[in-house]
Amino acid sequence: MATVNKKDSLFKKFADKFNFPDEQKLIDTLKATAFKVKDGVVTDEQMTALLIVADQYGLNPFTKEIFAFPDKQNGIVPVVSVDGWSRIINQHPDMDGLEFVYDQEIVTLNGSKPCPTSIECVIYRKDRTHPVRIREFLDETYREPSGNFRGPWQSHTKRMLRHKSLIQCSRIAFGFVGIYDQDEAERIIEGQSVVITDPGSSVEEPSLEAKRMAEKLILRAKQKGAWQAALDYAGENFSDFNLDFLKDEINKAKAFAEASLLPGNKSNDANGPAAKTAAATLQEGLKPEDSNKPPVNNKAKEALNNAKQNLS
After folding, report:
1. What is the pLDDT of residue 298?
2. To pair with 209 at 20 to 30 A between CA atoms, which of 224, 235, 270, 295?
3. How many alpha carbons fall within 13 Å on the CB side of residue 310?
């Protein structure tokens, strides 16, 4: 009895579904239309990966509900358009409606149109007592213009932020995994960077996106005291060297912020947890054998002395 190759079976399934005369014609058409690639070759394995995701979520690659970016590791980043996200959300059997809540505070970032600082998406499920609420913040998601190029974040700022909140909320509400919107996919591809600084050796550098996000997350964490939220966001959206870089920058900024609480500041309780944390953080950074050596960071020593005075 002849065995049927699963890959060929998948190609045949899509060929029959969309009335292609044969599988090869389907493959050639999709390689030319469903992949965002200027140069290079799309492999059958990459095509198979895309069709597996399309089949899992019931998306149509010919109407741009799903397409793909080849990544730098010869895999793909499956991209679902807003229409595709709308389809899988509304077709979910437990979907029972959604709504958006807009922040009353309006801001204008570099190149953007005036926009609420955050938009919350609320999704109701038929099988749950409480709805799922996810809020996305403009300063964490906004993508600044590249040179003179104005992208969708500049022309449709509010719409892009609304899409972000919808997609993130649907992931939590329905467990959608392994698919991204185009903005996320482009950031993922940009984040896969290795800078060669010397022949024969490679040194990884954080991507430009990671550096920008570090500034935004640290600024927001300082304003809201949301250091753990900043670390959680970094863990959800970055990986490998970029994630290590973000965690290191956030933790350094957190330690410095806590150590910089000075006497006379009403928010600085002399016996409160912030002062104790500042002292503990800085004490941990000083090794016992270095106690008689001049400190590397004079500001850190001064902050430590202030924290000790507050605790005495």
Report:
1. 55
2. 224
3. 29
